[in-house]
Each structure stands twice: as structure tokens, then as C-alpha cells.
Amino acid sequence: MPSISSWDDYPVHQAAEYVAHPATSDRNFYDRYYFNMHGSDGQVFAIFGLGQYPNLGVTDAFVAVGDVERHRVVRASRPIGDRADTAVGPIRVEIIEPLRSLRVLCEDNDHGVAMDVRWEAAIPAFEEPRQYLRSEGRVVFDTQRFAQVGRWAGSLTYGDTTVDVTPDRWMGTRDRSWGVRPVGEREPDAIRQGVNVMSGMWNYFPMQFDDHAIFYMLNETDTGIRQLEEAVRVWSDPARGHEWLGRPEHEHRFVSGTRLLAGSTLRMPEAGIEIECTPLLANYVAIGTGYGADDDWRHGMYHGPELVVQGRDFAVDEIKGLGQYVLVDHVGRFSYDGLVGHGLYEHGFWGPFERYGLTDGAAVAP
Questions:
Q1: Cα dihedral angle (338, 341, 241, 46), rounded to 10 degrees?
Q2: Is residue 19 part of a domain?
Q3: How many other C-beta atoms can be found within 10 angstroms of the C-beta atom of residue 271?
Q4: Domain count of the fold of the chain
């Protein structure tokens, strides 16, 4: 594959390399889009993304649409070429105005999911904290992200249902992240046998209100160490900027006999804020999409020299048992100080987390 590409004609270089070659040769370097889209209710939740893995020679994408009964996935993979080409099979991301407006398409296919939607930002792009984790001497996470909330317009088809996506009620969040994280084919664990590369509790709740957003993010280990933490309010008006809300405290309520959250209370004592969080609809996003639950499809996995497009269709009741042990994304309802908003209510509990009765990696809440 030639090193020179269309991006090399732009002044974007960050190292003495062509854009095709990241500054690090770590196999796990990635560069990804993540989006979600919902109608501010429990009807349907669509999650989609596209990633490039230059050191693995792969680009791939997925769309996962979940409702109360079915979890439908379209996924595609091909060898990477020009990094300016953000299309993989039927799935394509178009940047209309950087940091303001994007279009995402999943063209008609044989797998029962299609869409053509345009996203408009509701707040300025916000720089999230860098995540850095080292495990038994090796850097396993070194990632940078920015995030936004916004509104969608267009159309979505899943199964026999087609809905008009209108910005009066269809909202969502997106993030762009890049750096190093576990991707591609599974590597031998070696000295890290039995060690989760990211353990404990993961919470990520970006919340959208009429004139602002709140971002809450926390990776806390079973011993109480906070490896990543964020609580910030970002105003839609750029002149108002953003304000840090101090150390966030969580009180989660579980669905008995599961690792699924039934609701949460978040407190930011320094800011005098208490937020009630309610999940409206779960999307078991780790199933079928590449987030690690499937041995046959992982982000960055090589599937041969030609484009591969696949579909998966699961009954929710068949996958939620496994899905609760990985990453779960919900449509969330959030309320504080008389305000009501919606957004992403994302959680994962990996290994033990004894504060909530999870005594080992297999335990469920009492």
C-alpha cells in the first residue's frame, strides 16, 4: 500500500511521517467515531461507529439498532486505504462542517437496518480527559477524546419499521477518540493472565438539556481508586464556556440478580447539584459490533483482502445475560433542579465491585 495519500496535501502532520503512519507503531493504535441516536423515549436506540486501525491495516464500521425485542446489527470491514475515505461498505460518515455538522448513512442492504441522518451540534466540542492505563508494564490505554451532544434529522429503518427522525425530539451524543486501546485479534495475555485491562466500574453519562450539557465520567476500581473522573457543565452559548462541578459521587440501584442498573443518583456537592438518572431502553452494544464480546468480530480484526458485510439479528432476551457483563448503553432520562434532559446512560462493571455486592467477576447484584 502506498504511504502517500490525499490527507498529505493538507497541513495536518504531527510527526515526520505520512498521515497513513501514526507516530506510534503500537498495533493497538486506533482512530474512531462513535454516535448514538434516540427519540428521547424507550422506543428505539441506534448506536453506530466507524474506526481506522492503520497499524493493523483495517477499517471497519457498525450500526446497532435496539428496541425492547430485537437487537439488529449491520457491520462491515475492509483493508484500509486512503484515510480520508470514511466509508466501509454501506456505512459512511461525511463531515459537512467540522465540529458542527455530520451526516451518517447506512445504505439499503440485506440485513434490515438502513438510515440517512444528519447531526447538528448543540454545544461546542468539549475536550474530555486523557485516559492512560498501564498494566504489568505495558500501556494498554492512552487515548484522547472530544465529545458533543446534538440533534438528528433524517430517517431510520429497522425491520419493518421506518421512522422520521426530527430534531424536535431526536437527540444523541457523539465522541471522537484516538490513541491506543485493545483492538484487533486477541493477543496472548502472558503476565496479564486473569487481569482486566480496565477493571471496576465504568460510568459515562453525557446529558443534554435545553441550553447546556452535563458530562459525568468515572472509572473507579474495586479499591476506590479513580483512574478517570469528570463532572462538567458545558453551555450551548460558547461565551458561557463550561464549569467544573467538582468530585462526583454515585449511588447506583441495580436490577436484582443482574449487573444492570435500574437507576442512579449522582451528587456533585461542591456545585450543589443532585441528578436523578433513569434508564429508558438498553442497547447491548457490545454484542455483534466489535466491542469484545464476540470472538469472530472485534474492532480492527482482519477479515481478508475484500470488503466483508454481515448482519446479525438477536432477540434481546437471548443476549442480555451475556450483554450485562460487558458494556451496556441506555437511553437515559436525567433530572435536576426542575430541569429534564436525555442522553446516554452507559455502564460496565468488570470484575468485583464490592460496594454494590459484586463480590467477584461473575457475581450479580442481590
A1: 170
A2: no
A3: 17
A4: 1
